[in-house]
Amino acid sequence: GRPIGATPNLGRVGRAAEIMAWLACCGAFLEGDRWIAIDDMPLSPEVPDEHLLTTDANLGLTESAADEALLKLARRRLEVEASVGRSTTRRVERDHPYPRSALSAKVAP
Q: Quick check: 35 pLDDT over 50?
């Protein structure tokens, strides 16, 4: 998918609070609970690890970090759809750049 917005600037409140404010305001745009925050500052425990990718401030968003973000999003899709009993295999294969065998090995609970 594409980014669907940016967090507000709340100044000293901090980035985790900005993310939570955006979710409260714009969470209806999300597909279930599938979202990820990518930041170079540690935001855990305020932002749950399954929704967080912390990058190296000196490197930015690398290809391997982007791959990790995609895997987290795919994992969330599998978890959400499994909880409602929907089949996800074909959609994950279509939406995800990894072959099913690699995805299954990395995403299985």
A: yes
40 has pLDDT over 50 = yes
Handedness of CA 81, 85, 88, 89 (dihedral sign): positive
Locate the DSSP E strands across the chain: 37-39, 52-54
Q: Which residues pair with 34 in a beta bridge?
A: 31
Residue 74 structure tokens: 């795919």
Rounded to the nearest integer, the mean pLDDT of the chain is 77
| 58: Cβ contacts below 8 Å, ≥ 6 apart | none
Tokens of 79: 């978890």
d(CA 60, CA 43): 16
**pTM strictly above 0.85:** no
CA dist., res. 60 & res. 74, Å (int): 22
What are the tens digits of pLDDT across the range 59-98? 999 999 999 999 998 887 777 677 776 544 444 444 444 4
